[in-house]
Amino acid sequence: MTALAETTETSTEAGAVPSFDVTLRIRRFDPDTGAEPRWEEFTVTAHGTDRVLDAMHKVKWEVDGSLTFRRSCAHGICGSDAMRINGRNRLACKTLLKDLDPSKPIVIEPIKGLPVIKDLVVDMEPFFASYREVMPFLITNGNAPTKERLQSPEDRARYDDTTKCILCAACTSSCPVFWTDGQYFGPAAIVNAHRFIFDSRDEGAAQRLEVLNDKEGVWRCRTTFNCSEACPRGIEVTKAIQEVKRAMITRAF
Amino acid sequence: MATTTPTGTLAAPRSARATRSRGSSRTNMEMVGWLFMRLSGVLLIVLIFGHLFVNLMVGEGINRIDFAFVGGKWADPFWQFWDLAMLWLAMIHGTNGMRTIINDYAERDRTRLVLKALLYLAFFVTVVLGTLVIFTFEPCPIGAPAELLPSFCPAP
Ligand code: FES
Q1: How many domains are there within chain A?
Q2: pLDDT at residue B1, rounded to an integer
Q3: Where are any strands of DSSP class E within A103-238?
Q4: What is the C-alpha separation between A55 and A45, in angstroms, rounded?
Q5: Please, what are the domains in chain B?
């Protein structure tokens, strides 16, 4: 992507991608000065094929090296660069500038509900703590088989949707219940529990349901659908949460 | 190129979820509450629309409502039970909903405590008062003109 952008930059003749100026309005916080967080605007030239992440790279590499954000794969796989762009949680590397109306400033903030460390970098530890609590690994009893644990395609399809999670925290940090006190497990943890609860090979469903039956577990979900809307992988998060609720009820009665 | 404007304060860092003691819990109050909201919701639709239909549409409809009509209804155990169920379910349903909202939105422990105390007080007063009215209603008060009373009242 970046390589492509650079070649088009040098050859702006026929077939060139149109370029335009775009303003990024970024919420910045520097822990070293201890100053209040502030909004800062940067105007850079971007191409029609550029993503928000490309514009941010341009700012960081050419304008202000102190701008801090996470990114790793730059292709929507690692889940590092979830941020609040124009009021919605998205991955900067999957959001095209042209889809955002670049004639207006593009507002970029850190995701809500988690402590900000610097600029767009938040402390993900509370998020991962909830994730660890649902035991996101295969739990089995008895001896390990001598070959693979086989599974029918239908059984695999049962939890296919929730295997897509990349732990970017876009869902959890879009949840109003999580915003209040940060004690709620959050959609991401429930999605990852769902991935194992409905896996025919896993035998830890009861344990996981017990964990999520907590006061701060699935019952705090208010079905606002913010999480389903925020998920950059298109996981039907709210549906997964409802399925976990249903599993709990059928188990109890 | 870079313009700076100050904004509000930064949200205070928050701690991770406090790990709770994990007892074996097949059911818990939150689950019961969640289920209750669904079931009582369905029942309340039937009860409330039944109530509205009988009171406002059957026969002469709304013109029929007077002391005698209400007195007559509450002399019948069927309607006593109907109204009692409506009162209790609606009050528990509403109070649980408010409790949820307080839990979601009131951040400080003290605010939470005060709001919930007021809520439970209102619940208690309404339910006790309503229940008393339904069971102790006197359809034939002494000395009232007979044309205002239900037909089953003894002639004065
Ligand atoms: S940088 Fe890896 S998901 Fe965006």
Answers
A1: 2
A2: 45
A3: 106-109, 116-118, 121-122
A4: 8
A5: 30-138 (1.20.1300.10)
Give CA–CA dist A110/A170, Å, rounded.
10
Considering the domain architecture, whether residues A113 and A129 belong to the same structural domain is answered as no
Give residue-wise pLDDT tens across range A164-181.
999 999 999 999 999 988
pLDDT tens-digit map of B100-146: 999 888 878 899 999 999 999 999 999 999 999 998 888 888 877 87
Question: Of A67, A88, A122, which residue is a domain's last?
Answer: A122
DSSP designation for A59: I
Distance from Cα A138 to the centre of ligand 1, integer Å: 26
Report the gap between the CA of B20 and the closest CA in chain A (Å): 9
Cα–Cα distance measured from residue A186 to residue A172, given in angstroms and rounded to the nearest whole number: 5
**End-of-domain residue from the set A122, A149, A165:** A122
Which ipTM did the prediction report?
0.73
**Does residue A71 line the site of ligand 1, with CB under 6 A?**
yes
Say whether residue B12 is in contact with chain A using an 8 A CB cutoff: yes
Q: Which domain holds residue A238?
A: 125-252
